[in-house]
Structure formats: structure tokens, C-alpha cells
Amino acid sequence: MIEVKNLSKQFEENLVLDNVSVRFEQGKTNLIIGQSGSGKTVLLKSIVGLHSVDSGEIWFDDRLYNKLSFKEKKEIRKEIGMLFQGAALFDSSTVEENVMLPLDFFTQMSSAQKLERVNFCLNRVNMDKTNALYPSELSGGMKKRVAIARAIALNPKYLFCDEPNSGLDPKTGILIDNLIKEITEEFNITTIVNTHDMNSVLEIGDKVVFIYNGKKLWEGTNAEIMTTDCIELNEFVFATTLAKKLIGG
């Protein structure tokens, strides 16, 4: 479980997060949605610790993250997996080396133990026998799957995904969504996904949080989102769905 309470963040004169409170549930895919500039990315990065916050609390289970020492925060970071937009694989490293990277940084495993874990994670994302390949030899969907393998290498309690379907065709995007949901349920992870993709919302949105002008305007399930009376959310859903139809998505 991750919970934020009364979170606010300002950049110069721009109030980006305005007193946001929300609880993200363990074993479920928790989606943050909103238009560009709404504050959803800042919220995600603030929870991870990439942004400091001006006020409020960030709880990882029973630990108040933003009040911990650097050493204490480092221990929690070992429990975090991150799937970056665009996969963010290192081009000069093989698939095996990319997935092994967090194990090199955060564990004292032997080489044999690390390789065993890498192979397990690659198998879990259906990327067996790709160890020696380089990112340039992979499709967009394959890169995302390798990035997921790297994100779960440390067997995280918390998984953060920033626009996981960015740059993917709809069919591949659904495959990535389903993989994220399967891994979340299988390993009982608290997963937070930052997205503007309504396909993702309808496919895997166990819990959906709508951010509008820095405020949490609505939260509920993917089933409830279609019957909400929140005007701003309805406009977002309609505009997003219409845009996908116009571009043939």
C-alpha cells in the first residue's frame, strides 16, 4: 500500500499539486490519468522521490517516506521497480546486462545467482533466449517487456510505470497492460501507472485517479468511470476516445 496525504508541490509561481490525498492499493493496478500538464507525472515522480514536495506525507505501508533519512530512503528504493517511458534501456548493454543492472547495484548475489534471477524475469515476460541481444535488435514491445523484466528483478513491493504504452500500437499496448496486471496480481505488488490511454483504463484500471489542474477530482474503478457525473472527467474520456478514433487507434 502507498498513501499520499495532503500533497502539494509548486514550481516557482505554478502550483502543480494542490492538496492531493489518495491511497494506492496492494495487489491492484492503480492508474493516474489526466490531460498533459494536469500534474499526474509530477505526482508519480513525487511519490518515487524524484521530486521533493512542499507539504504533505508519502507513506509506503507504515513508513513515512518523505521524512526518512537518505539511508532509510535507500532501503525503500530497493523495494521499488520503475518502468520508464520509452523503456530507457542502455543501448550499449545487452538484454542480460540491462536486466542485471539493479542486481549489480543493490545486491550481493553471486554471478550465478544474478544470472538465474535474470533468466527467471526474462522468462516471466516471454523473452527467453534474448540475453545476448542489444536493444537495437528489439521491437518497441520487446523493449518494454525487457524493461518490465528489469523493473521486477529485485522482486519489488512497489512498481511504478510511466506511460508504459507510449509509442506502441494498440495491440501491443494491450499485451503490455495485461503483463503489468498479471505481474501485479501474481507478486501482490502495489502498482501505480501514469497514463492517458483509455484502453489501459478500461483493460486494467482496478483503481483510477483523475487529476485535473493539480487536484484529485475523481477516483473509482474502470467500471465506474463510464457512469460518472464528473463533467471534467467525462470531457477527458470523450476527448481521448475521439482522438483515438480520428487517428485510427
Structure commentary:
The protein is α/β, with parallel strands linked by helices and 249 residues long. The chain has helices at 40-48, 70-77, 95-106, 111-124, 140-151, 170-187, 198-204, 231-246; strands at 2-11, 14-24, 29-33, 55-60, 63-64, 80-83, 158-162, 190-194, 207-212, 215-220. The protein folds into two domains: 2-79 and 158-246, Rossmann fold (3-Layer(aba) Sandwich); 89-155, no CATH class. A six-stranded mixed β-sheet has the order 6-7-8-3-9-10. Strands 2-1-4-5 form a four-stranded antiparallel β-sheet, with helices on one face. Helix 5 (140-151) runs parallel beside helix 6. The mean pLDDT is 91.
How would the blueprint of this fold be written?
Blueprint: E1 2-11, E2 14-24, E3 29-33, H1 40-48, E4 55-60, E5 63-64, H2 70-77, E6 80-83, H3 95-106, H4 111-124, H5 140-151, E7 158-162, H6 170-187, E8 190-194, H7 198-204, E9 207-212, E10 215-220, H8 231-246
Parallel strand pairs: 3-8, 3-9, 6-7, 7-8
Antiparallel strand pairs: 1-2, 1-4, 4-5, 9-10
Q: Say how many strands there are.
A: 10
What fraction of residues sit in β-strands? 15-25%
The percent range for helix content is 25-40%
Structural classification? alpha/beta
The ordered H/E elements are: EEEHEEHEHHHEHEHEEH
CATH topology of the largest domain: Rossmann fold
**What is the highest CATH level, the class of the largest domain?**
Alpha Beta
Task: Please state the CA-atom Rg, rounded to the nearest Å.
Answer: 18 Å
Largest sheet: 6 strands, mixed
Q: What is the CATH architecture term of the largest domain?
A: 3-Layer(aba) Sandwich
Number of domains: 2
Arithmetic mean of pLDDT = 91
